[in-house]
Design brief:
2 domains, about 45% helix, 11 strands, Endonuclease, Chain A, 3-stranded antiparallel beta sheet, about 280 residues
Length: about 280
């Protein structure tokens, strides 16, 4: 495993992210904000990834005060042409909850690069600002990569996630325009409030992303593959404790880890909890 810290001073985030995307067959990015000048840095490598049919997933926050509607539209148009690309948007129905992650993941057949820290997908975040990002390079099935990809998956299937369509993006564009026009007065404008309500209602009507087995990496994949068809118990999975320990010798609490992974599989809909320690495989 390789770990380094980048701050955009001696080396910028884009200089690591762009080649990682260019060489990847699987790209997953979760960011709070996107701008056109930030997306510009990734477009050549993104087009290269699309040509080789790489899996590409973007989880983007839809805050009209900071996310550029033109950039979101460009990203949507780029990914919709790809059979393996998807844009997923976060629309919070709870104003007290702010969507704020910055996770960049790129992997080939065996190894992955993860960049996690403070850089949004903007020119300032990738190149100009003084940031603090951790870069981790390791085998895809290492324990740390297992944890990172599981975190991404949980973000992807958050209840406030939606798959956008043209109408949704048009409404978002209108909200952004009014936000700029009204600025602080916008919160008192009835027309603006009605538009925001329409936006939320539209979001609630959109399709949600559906979990597939491509989400299962590292621990999740290993635990899922040990599960028998139909009903099963914790004890049925505990039987594989020795094999799990051989795979992840640094983990000193295998059974607790198994229970954690079962809960995540339940949240994703792969299994159903029937009673204490009793489950049923669904997918």
């Amino acid at each position: 495993m390789q770990i380094q810290i980048i701050d955009n001073v001696e080396r910028n985030t884009a200089s690591i992210l762009v080649p990682a995307i260019t060489n990847a067959f699987d790209i997953r990015i979760a960011v709070a904000f996107v701008s056109g000048d930030g997306l510009y840095y990734l477009l050549p490598s993104m087009r290269s990834a699309i040509e080789k049919k790489a899996n590409i997933e973007f989880l983007v926050g839809m805050d009209p005060r900071v996310t550029d509607p033109y950039a979101v539209r460009d990203l949507y148009n780029l990914l919709i042409k790809s059979s393996t690309g998807v844009l997923i948007c976060f629309v919070s129905r709870n104003s007290s909850a702010i969507y704020h992650p910055k996770i960049y993941l790129a992997k080939d057949n065996q190894n992955a690069t993860a960049i996690i820290g403070s850089s949004n997908l903007t020119r300032r975040g990738l190149v100009k600002n003084i940031e603090a990002n951790v870069v981790i390079k390791d085998q895809i099935n290492s324990e740390i990569m297992s944890e990172i990809y599981t975190t991404f998956t949980r973000l992807k299937y958050h209840p406030d996630r939606v798959i956008p369509d043209d109408e949704f993006l048009d409404i978002f564009f209108e909200i952004c325009q009014k936000e700029k026009s009204f600025q602080s007065k916008a919160v008192k404008d009835k027309e603006f409030q009605k538009l925001k309500k329409t936006f939320i209602e539209k979001a609630m009507s959109l399709e949600r992303p559906k979990p597939t087995k491509t989400e299962l990496i590292g621990w999740l994949e290993m635990v899922y593959n040990s599960i028998p068809e139909g009903k099963f118990t914790n004890q049925d999975v505990y039987k594989f404790e020795t094999q799990f320990r051989e795979r992840y010798p640094q983990n000193q609490n295998i059974k607790a880890k198994i229970r954690q992974q079962l809960q995540i599989l339940r949240q994703l809909g792969f299994i159903e909890h029937l009673s204490t320690g009793v489950w049923e495989k669904k997918l």
